Amino acid sequence: MVSTKAPEDAYTAEPFVPDRGGLPALRRAAADCRGCPLHRDATQTVFGQGTADARVMLVGEQPGDQEDRQGKPFVGPAGRLLDRALEEAGIDPSEAYVTNAVKHFKFTQAEPRKRRIHKAPSLREMTACGPWLAAELAVVEPELIVILGATAGKALLGSSFRVGEVRGALLEREIHGRQEKLVATVHPSSVLRAQDDKDRKAAYEGLVSDLKVAARALS
């Protein structure tokens, strides 16, 4: 029997992305995306949130457990920490557009009732989901993009991206045919994973410092 399953590198969200209708149309269409296998186990698509006239777009990795359950990005512990860091840096969280490079939660789970453990998306999965991020950028046209972590950076700038090499610097790069200003920093979840209070405080202060660069670029 010949398999009809497409090869993994052929997965793409492109056929599901509407040509017009703005963010509402994109959000509705993304709910039915079958562009890669991640939709099979996730509860739902977690699309970006915010207004089309947001000046700054925050791009993270993928939804976490709480985001997957609630259908909104950055509503878990990392999201709350990010909001606090943004406010400290001088950026109003309510005026930002927040999204992820990958719109479905990827996880491992030993047993059905056990906790779902986050698993980093592959480069192919990021690439498959790329048309959604490109569409969000085309609609919002932010003045600045804040990259939150390595996965978001690789999705936007390529597989050679390393957070430590460029974090806290104002960058300019062409992305999807448009010149963009970007600031890279760590994902807020990495702050929560710090081993002790001292390390967590230092990691948080580093995040706020990077976000202050973004705030100055917007002023």
Put the structure in a nutshell.
The protein has 219 residues and is α/β, with parallel strands linked by helices.
Your description of this structure?
The structure is a single chain. The protein is an alpha/beta fold and 219 residues long. It has a single domain, classed as 3-Layer(aba) Sandwich (Uracil-DNA Glycosylase, subunit E), CATH 3.40.470.10. The chain contains eight helices and seven strands. The chain has helices spanning 22-30, 65-70, 77-89, 123-140, 150-157, 163-166, 188-192, 197-218, and strands at 56-60, 96-100, 107-108, 117-118, 144-148, 170-175, 178-185. The strands form two sheets. It has a five-stranded mixed sheet with strand order 2-1-5-7-6. It has a two-stranded antiparallel sheet with strand order 3-4. Helix 1 (22-30) runs antiparallel to helix 4 and helix 4 packs across helix 5 (150-157). The longest helix is centred in the C-terminal third of the chain and has 22 residues, at 197-218.
